[in-house]
Specification:
Blueprint lengths: L5 H11 L4 E5 L2 E4 H19 L5 E5 L4 H12 L3 E5 L5 H10 L4 E5 L7 H6 L1 E5 L1 H6 L15 E7 L7 E6 H14 L7 E3 L8 H10 L4 E3 L3 H5 L1 H7 L4 E4 L2 H8 L13 E4 L6 H10 L4 E6 L9 E4 L25 E5 L8 E7 L17 E5 L2 E4 L10 E11 L2 E7 L3 E4 L2 E4 H9 L4 E11 L2 E10 L4 H8 L11 E4 L13 H8 L10
Parallel strand pairs: 1-10, 3-4, 3-5, 5-6, 9-10, 11-12, 12-13, 24-25
Antiparallel strand pairs: 1-2, 7-8, 13-14, 15-16, 16-19, 17-18, 17-19, 19-20, 21-22, 23-24
Helix pairs in contact: 2-3, 7-8
């Protein structure tokens, strides 16, 4: 299995396929030679602006030339990439940028003024696509990154009310890139979708499985994702990768027409449970596509399991919850399913270790309770400051072996997935409680359509829903802002004196519990 840094994966393709198209985005088509020149030009600008090579580069840009060339430029200089989402609140991006002490902040012309982010980063490099496309590189230092160096840090929702940083090294991600290039037969001539924001770790597949073998990355607009069939046909996509909700949302809008010829031969889904309803709708659009369901938390480097549906629907395995199986686990990773007592079981929490397992959170306090080690015939928590190499990462996901396949059942905690993004209810509750007029806040998730809906309850001063929701947009990404907010004079308690979440859930679904507020 090849072992390369992410930049080396790209540079190898640039050497082998310099005239092949590497990027098709916003009307621009760049060859590998072009994209390499753009990346090196941005790297030259960083050096000229800062005066020396940075250690950590934050990226506040959309999925255009600045973002993608900037990502490669940071890697070319041996720096760690820290993607920020321009649509997320400045407050949240400031926390991320400050917690990792970024040296440089790259900003494109679509992002708002960086404000406090500029203070956190120190050096700001503002660029636009046209400027990058026209730039020429200068002298650069030799490649310096090693497999042990951190390639990128992504931040996931945290139960403590602050995002958790997940550092992933080049050594963690290189085997993932190699496996997926082979698994999905990606190579020159292939056109791969880029549906994921850079803050969402499947984007690493988009970029480096594509660029690691000389294929073309094709970036859609926001509206393209609501009309995926037009995107597939008009842009000649051969490999599609997205969350399943792209299918269900498009179907609900009437945007999944059938009968249009596509060249799509491989479809991959991640981030949410993939149902047989999703599959049927997608196969009706692209009847000749293979479909793989993959699974994995950020801490295990994008994905660690995969299941390919048989071509004949009569051979699709029946599952207890009508979802497509997620596994087996990659053959070069170790895993165990444990019950509530830590004993190996057919149903329980999936725990994984091996070369793709990260080495611990940016803040070591977040490691507590997240790893297991074997102790006789049981697996017990490992609360070392840093996890041991032999430690298993606890995914927090309940799975079951069904007819030889791993099936995802549910979460074991208050974490859930919305649009594929991990959401900790504790972080949403902490944001609501931060409002000066709020005394106490609780958030629950209730079924809604094809996924969960967040509902918030709070005590203190009653506020207009629109006002409170607008205030929360300054602290939370839009997918984490509750769709409904309810003021109550008090929150119901259970016999243990804790907030009775089930009573609140019953209240939302139709039963009155206690006296609702205004």
């Amino acid at each position: 299995m090849a072992a390369r840094t992410l930049y080396e994966w790209f540079a190898r393709s640039a050497e082998l396929h310099p005239d092949a198209p590497a990027l098709d985005v916003t009307g621009d088509v760049l060859t590998y030679r072009d994209l390499r020149r753009c990346a090196e030009a941005v790297a030259t600008t960083i050096l000229a602006t800062r005066g020396s090579a940075p250690d950590r580069v934050a990226l506040l840009a959309g999925r255009g030339v600045v973002a993608l060339a900037g990502y490669l430029a940071a890697l070319r200089l041996g720096a760690t990439v820290v993607p920020l989402n321009p649509t997320h609140p400045v407050y949240r991006n400031e926390i991320i940028c400050g917690s990792i002490a970024c040296d440089v902040l790259i900003v494109d012309d679509h992002a708002a003024e960086p404000g406090g982010l500029a203070d956190a980063a120190g050096t700001v490099v503002r660029l636009d696509d046209a400027e990058v496309l026209a730039a020429r590189p200068g002298p650069l230092p030799a490649l310096s990154a090693t497999l042990a160096d951190v390639a990128y840090v992504l931040f996931t929702s945290g139960s403590t009310g602050r995002p958790k940083g997940v550092p992933i090294t080049h050594g963690h991600v290189s085997p993932y890139v190699a496996r997926n290039i082979a698994r999905f037969e990606v190579g020159p001539g292939c056109r791969v979708s880029h549906t994921f924001d850079l803050t969402f770790d499947p984007s690493v597949f988009d970029l480096f499985v594509t660029w690691g073998c000389g294929a073309t990355l094709v970036s859609p607009s926001r509206t393209d994702l609501l009309n995926p069939v037009d995107f597939l046909v008009d842009r000649a996509i051969t490999h599609w990768f997205s969350v399943p909700s792209v299918v269900s949302v498009s179907a609900s809008l009437g945007n999944l027409p059938t009968g249009r010829p596509t060249v799509l031969r491989q479809s991959i889904f991640i981030g949410e449970q993939l149902t047989y309803g999703h599959v049927a709708a997608w196969r009706a659009v692209a009847p000749n596509t293979r479909i793989d369901n993959v699974y994995g938390p950020t801490e295990l480097t994008v994905a660690c399991t995969e299941y390919r549906l048989p071509e004949d629907p009569r051979h699709w395995p029946a599952t207890s919850n009508d979802t497509v199986p997620i596994g087996p686990v990659y053959d070069y990773l170790d895993h165990v399913v444990v019950d509530d007592c830590g004993a190996p079981a057919a149903e329980g929490e999936l725990c994984v270790r091996g070369v793709q397992r990260f080495a611990g959170y940016l803040d070591p306090r977040d490691n507590r309770g997240r790893f297991l080690v074997r102790d006789g015939d049981r697996y017990v928590p490992c609360d070392d400051v840093a996890p041991r190499p032999e430690s298993f990462y606890r995914t927090g996901d309940r799975v079951r072996w069904e007819n030889g396949h791993l099936v995802h059942l549910s979460r074991l905690d208050d974490q859930l997935k919305i649009w594929g993004y991990r959401v900790e209810l504790g972080e949403v509750e902490a944001a609501i409680a931060r409002h000066p007029e709020v005394t106490q806040a609780v958030v629950i998730a209730v079924p809604h359509g094809d996924g969960p809906e967040l509902v918030g309850f709070y005590t203190g001063t009653a506020l207009p829903d629109r006002q409170l929701a607008g205030w929360l947009r300054d602290y939370l990404p839009i997918h984490m802002v509750p769709r409904r907010l309810h003021h109550r004079d008090s929150l119901p308690l259970n016999v243990n004196g804790k907030v009775d979440r089930q009573a609140l859930r019953e209240c939302v679904t139709g039963q009155r519990v206690g006296r609702p507020g205004r």
